[in-house]
Amino acid sequence: MLTILPRELKSYFQTATGYIFMIVYLMLFGIYFTYININPTPNNAYTVTIENMVFIFVLLSPLLTMKALSEERKNKTDQLLLTSPKSVSAIVLGKFFAAIILFFITLLITTLYPIILSFFGDIYLPTIVIAYIGFFFMGCTFIGLGIFISSLTENQLIAGVSTLGISMILWLVEAISSRFPVDSFSGFIFLIILASALNGIVYYFSKNIWLTMSLTIICVGILCAIFYAKKSFFEGMIKRFSDWFSIPLHSKDFYLGILDFSDLIYFISLICLFLYFTIFAIERRRWT
């Protein structure tokens, strides 16, 4: 990993991707910070600035990940990496941490703003630090997602658009979850569709139709049994599921100065899950 990391970090600035990401993000951050302080409102705490600028990061994060692995496949250099003494996990982690370091440096530069504010009055530093911690782990989650999607295609544009699309779904799902049906039958149908989709992923990775069919039958059978025995279990299932995947919902406490370790575990778990899927996808391609 330590040999991959410097190379990947250097590549961000050789192709100007790193410069574009940092310049655009810092420029927008500076404009918003200036505006919210020139036109103060009752809610113009610096943590509000951080919370609102997370959305801008979501829009720009595909720049950090769309070429991470897709470019290797397009240029056929992935074969050199896969036949090198380095393990797949070391390659993936090297690329992941290179993007994380660039993101961290960009985030570190924005800490100049609370320093500026401290010259004009008192600021509550612990709340700002916790807000930055939440921002950092949320950003790492979106980067992990982007790395995974980049491993599935050799087209950088497809990787970038797909990352942006899925990121926006995760960002907006809380806002639309209140419109989802809450009756038990809708929840039952939703779980059947979800189980079918997950089994489709199993087939994509295993190419074993009998395993996929067996798992599908078992899942549907279990769901039917639960629905027959306790319909209330499925009430509000769609909303509960969408709320669990709502990344903003799991980060709200950070911007209030509350360090919730369950939310940290949530972000770390998603990061590990995305990296595991990435390694698995590459390993599967390596031996097929």
Structural overview:
It is a single chain. The chain is mainly α and 288 residues long. The protein has two domains: 4-178 and 244-286, no CATH class; 181-235. The chain has 14 helices and no strands. The radius of gyration is 21 Å and the shape is flat. The mean pLDDT is 82.
Topology:
Elements: H1 4-14, H2 17-38, H3 46-60, H4 62-65, H5 70-74, H6 78-82, H7 88-109, H8 112-118, H9 125-150, H10 156-177, H11 184-206, H12 209-229, H13 237-245, H14 261-286
Helix pairs in contact: 1-7, 2-3, 2-7, 3-9, 3-10, 7-9, 7-14, 9-10, 9-14, 10-13, 11-12
What distance lies between the first and last C-alpha atoms, to the nearest angstrom?
24 Å
What string, H for helix and E for strand, traces the elements in order? HHHHHHHHHHHHHH
* Average pLDDT number: 82
Structural class, from secondary structure content? Answer: mainly alpha
Shape: flat
Biggest pleated sheet: none
Portion in helices: over 70%
Helix count from the secondary structure assignment: 14
Strand content: under 5%
Report low-confidence residues grouped into runs of 5 or more.
Answer: none
Q: Indicate how many domains the architecture comprises.
A: 2
- The beta-strand count equals 0
Estimated radius of gyration: 21 Å
Question: What's the short story on this structure?
Answer:
By secondary structure, this protein is an all-alpha fold.
Highlighted features:
288 residues; mainly alpha
